[in-house]
Branched-chain amino acid ABC transporter permease
Amino acid sequence: MADIVTILINGTVISSLYALVAIGFTMIFGVGGTINLAHGGIITVGAFSAYYVTNAGLGIWAGVLAAMAVPALFSVLLYKGFAERRNDIIIVMILTLLASIVVEEVVRIVEGSQPKAIPALVSGTTELLGSSVQNNLLVVFVVSWLLIGGLFAFVNYTKTGKAILATSMSPRGAALVGIESDRINLYTWAIAGLLAGIAGLFLGSYQTANWAMGREPLILSFSIVVLGGLGSIRGSLVAAYVIGFLEVITTSAIDPRLSGLAGLLVLVVVLLVRPEGLFGRELAEA
């Protein structure tokens, strides 16, 4: 029973983190038609921003703010430098991939290859269904869902959010009613950076932070957004839990060395059987 509960808890928590990463990834594609391969590097930026802030003695909650603000700014700079007014998706993919490699190499050179511990948001444990659960995991889950819920509310009920939906549906139509696509894309990249950055902090406090920590979430994000439907926030949320639980079950019940395999198999099957995904390609489905 304890093992099942542990798998359930780990699957629930890790899936919420994958959802944060994948939602930002799919928003950028849904609004601007761009694939940001630096998304994994942004996760690393978020984790190490928190690591440096907490090591400076400013506390973990200052680290949380840093893990949101620094990656959001970094993502904005990526957009302004690499994606704004570039219509060639391949060039943008190559440039963002190079940016991610640079981030990883800088972190590896400065910090080395040894994993770095990021303090937990809260200490202590709670007894849940006969299993002892770290309070940190519970906070990570709750905060992740607060961010996801806040994003859904923002997209569906604010003027800027509705402009994002309109741009995702028809950039030309949005432009005809006075919506500036460059400004909306800038907002989208900033939101995606914030979500990826806080996911990096959570992953670092849940596990550890290292220079290559963003690679596996990025690969799984491809599986998640393809399964959910490219551009669909709702699809990414559902698919994150499918992929997350498959990942945890595979590594916990079969072999830890198979990490990432379940997501890749799902990606292949979906591309062969249902390439449009579960919910199709519309950010408007948020």
Summary: The two ends are 36 Å apart (CA to CA). The chain has one domain: 2-285.
